[in-house]
C-alpha cells in the first residue's frame, strides 16, 4: 500500500487527480483481495468522478490536470 501511495503521489502531475485516483484505488483494492471486476471498476470510477466534480469542476482547486481533465475541458469548451 505504501508503494501504491508513493506511485500515486509521484505520478499525480502526469496522470492528474482523476486518473491517478482511479488507478491507485483499483490497485489498492486488488492488493487487498477484491477480485470482482465490477467492484474494481465501479468503486474507483464513482470516487474519481466525485473527486473530479468536487475539486476540479466546483471548487476549481489547483490539483494537476491530467489527460482526463484536459479531455473533459476540451469537450465542454
Question: Describe it for me?
Answer:
By secondary structure, the protein is an all-alpha fold. It has helices at residues 2-31, 37-58, 67-76. Helix 1 crosses helix 2.
Write the layout of secondary structure elements.
Blueprint: H1 2-31, H2 37-58, H3 67-76
Helix pairs in contact: 1-2
Features:
3 helices, globular, 77 residues, mainly alpha
Short characterization:
The chain is mainly α and 77 residues long. It has three helices and no strands. The chain has one domain.
Residues in helices, as a percent range: over 70%
Gyration radius, to the nearest Å?
13 Å
Number of helices: 3
- What oligomeric state is this? single chain
Supply the helix-strand structural class.
mainly alpha
Please give the alpha-carbon distance between the first and last residues.
38 Å
Report the principal-axis shape. Answer: globular
- Can you tell me the residue ranges where pLDDT is under 50 for at least 5 consecutive residues? none
What fraction of the residues are assigned to beta strands by DSSP? under 5%
Amino acid at each position: 500500500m505504501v508503494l501504491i501511495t508513493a506511485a500515486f503521489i509521484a505520478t499525480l502531475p502526469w496522470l492528474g487527480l482523476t486518473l491517478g485516483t482511479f488507478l491507485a484505488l483499483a490497485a489498492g483494492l486488488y492488493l487487498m483481495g477484491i477480485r470482482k471486476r465490477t467492484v474494481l471498476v465501479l468503486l474507483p470510477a464513482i470516487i474519481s468522478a466525485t473527486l473530479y466534480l468536487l475539486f476540479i469542476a466546483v471548487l476549481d482547486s489547483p490539483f494537476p490536470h491530467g489527460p482526463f481533465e484536459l479531455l473533459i475541458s476540451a469537450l465542454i469548451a
